[in-house]
Amino acid sequence: MSRRLTSHLRRALKNVRGELVGVALSTGTIALIFFLFSTFLLAVENLDGMLKFWSKKLQIICYLESGIDEGKIRRIKEELLGIEGIEEVRYVSSKEAKEMLVRDLGELMRGMERLEEKLFPATLELGLKDDASYEEIEAIAKEIEGIEGIAEVQHGGVWLKKLTLFLKVMKAVALVFGAVLAGITISITATTVHLTFYHRLEEVEIMRLIGATEDFIRFPFYLEGGLQGLSGASLSLLALFLTYWIFSQAWGPQLRFYLGGRGFEFLSPLAVLVVLTLGFFSGFMGGVISLARSRG
Amino acid sequence: MYPSEEETAEAIIRFFSVTKIYPGGVEAIKGANFSIRKGEFVFVTGPSGAGKTTLLKLMILAERPERGEILVDGTNITRLRRSQIYRLRRKVGFVFQDFKLLKDRTVFENICLPLEVIGYPLTKMEKRVRRLLKLVSLDEKVLNLPPLYLSGGEQQRVAIARALINNPSILLADEPTGNLDPVLTIEIMDLLMKVNQVGTTVVVATHDDSLVNRYRRRTIVLRRGEIVAQ
Fold it and tell me: What is the pLDDT of residues B185-223, one digit of tens each?
């Protein structure tokens, strides 16, 4: 099996060498298209990572009714900890709330130190499990609103919902983009393989006359298409990595800031595998489609 | 006239009323009936355009007949599906006037081609090739050269070695000496006789009457697609 594959591969490489200009042009075009796709994937993956990173930091803040006593606060905490998805409950008194605001806003709070503490409501800050979705956050918030002693509940689920929806659209676009890309690659490789096949028609005829099966004759041409697709996809990833590296070197800290503390990352191994596999199989299919109508 | 029962019993190739019509209505072969026995050496002769090449092509289904039936080694090849033709061709060696060697491969690779397509082990190939080189009188030094470095006679020897590498029971040669000078022609014909002597059925298409007269073997004579003598 491996010997036969080596023989097919050798013939495929021979085909490529015999049609170097055509193959280089088609590989270059595939690389360019895959570069756009990989860049899009990079954006989607980073957005996805950013969402996961931020959702880990999401909190629910419960504003307590004024004048609530310590015993009541303890009971509310116990009740909250009994709700699935809530992992931590931290009490922030009116005094602490005022101190935090003064500390965080610094100069802006100058002269406001004399404000009464009762203007700053006591809160309970809830730490949620890491992978909480916006639906879960909304459900928890709704459940909490009914607890006696809690005046108001605030959470960041709304923007998380919007971003998640946006990410879903991006992923759908990526799928469509991938399908279109596969179609273009099939069309490009089909043309090149067709050319190679007709340039090697004499060899094909000889092969047929000495008893080679059609599959034996054609497989190297399919493989040639696959190799073109794979080379194009690999080149695109290389170009993307260089672009990413230069970009990270120049604007890494700024990007970290805009992404809320999460670094700008290169494609995951899975995404790299997807790009390479898509390149190989769409090229291979180009070969298959190209020769489908020239059975000997 | 159909082949007799006695002929049929030993026949390795049989044609029954075979007609081949090319597009445009040209009848290249008209109702051919004949048989070739196992181990026989047969000339197919006639002027250019008589249908010699078509007759040989029909034997390996490089052309399909419009009418009639062809039996090769007990198989009715006219009923073979396209996907089954390779089995027939593995039993029949074919030698062409223009050698049809692959220019971008070495002599060794050219000879081994029929073995490569059946996935024969490389280590065993070398042994077979060296044995064949002796039969076709070629020096081992040529093995790593591309065929274009060889003379016409040597190239035809390589082509014959390729045709014989998987021990076919039939060897078909279409004008094998057409591109060679008289001395090389005799050498190649002697080689084909040698191949025949080891038991291979050999069919040679030629328009060269001097060869037919020199070797005096059974001859099928074609005129405008019709067998006029055999």
Answer: 898 899 899 989 989 999 999 988 888 999 889 999 999
CA-based nearest residue in chain B for residue A295:
B82
- A134 burial (CB, 10 Å; 0-12 / 13-18 / 19+) is buried
Lowest-confidence pick of A17-31, A51-65, A106-120, A204-218: A106-120
Q: What is the SS3 assignment for A87?
A: strand
Look at B114 and A211 and tell me if their CB atoms are within 8 Å: yes
Q: Is A4 on the interface with B (CB under 8 A)?
A: yes
Q: What is the CATH number of domain A59-155?
A: 3.30.70.3040
Nearest to A90 by CA among A65, A73, A108, A67: A73
Find the CB nearest B89 among A203, A211, A295.
A211
pLDDT at B9 over 70: no
A20 reaches B (C-beta below 8 A): no
Query: Would you list the domain boundaries of chain A?
Result: 2-54+161-291, 59-155
Q: Do the Cβ atoms of A296 and A230 come closer than 8 Å?
A: no
Q: How far apart are CA B114 and CA A4, in angstroms?
A: 13
With CA atoms as reference, report the closest residue to B55 among B173, B166, B169: B173
Whether A210 sits inside 8 A of B114 (CB atoms) is yes
Distance CA A290, CA A286 (A): 6
Q: Percent helix, strand and coil across chain B, each rounded to 5?
A: 40, 25, 35
Query: Measured between CB atoms, which of B82, B104, B117 is closest to A212?
Result: B117
Q: What is the mean pLDDT of chain A?
A: 84
Q: Which domains does chain B have, with CATH numbers?
A: 38-57+81-229 (3.40.50.300)
Tell me the shortest Cα–Cα distance from B102 to chain A, in angstroms: 7
Contacts of A201 (CB under 8 A, 6+ apart): none
Interface pTM (ipTM) of the complex?
Answer: 0.85
**In B, which residues are within 8 Å of A218 by CB distance?**
none
Does the model's pTM come out above 0.90? no
B119 → closest Cβ in A3, A18, A209: A3
Strand partners, B43: B204, B219
Phi, psi (rounded to 5 degrees) for B28: -75, -35
CB contact under 8 A, B117 and A3: no
- Cβ of A18 within 8 Å of Cβ of B104? The answer is yes
| B114/A206 touch (CB, cutoff 8 Å), yes or no | no
Give the tens place of pLDDT for each residue, B129-154.
988 888 888 888 899 999 999 988 89
Q: To probe the interface with A, which of B83, B101, B116 has the most A CB atoms within 10 Å?
A: B116
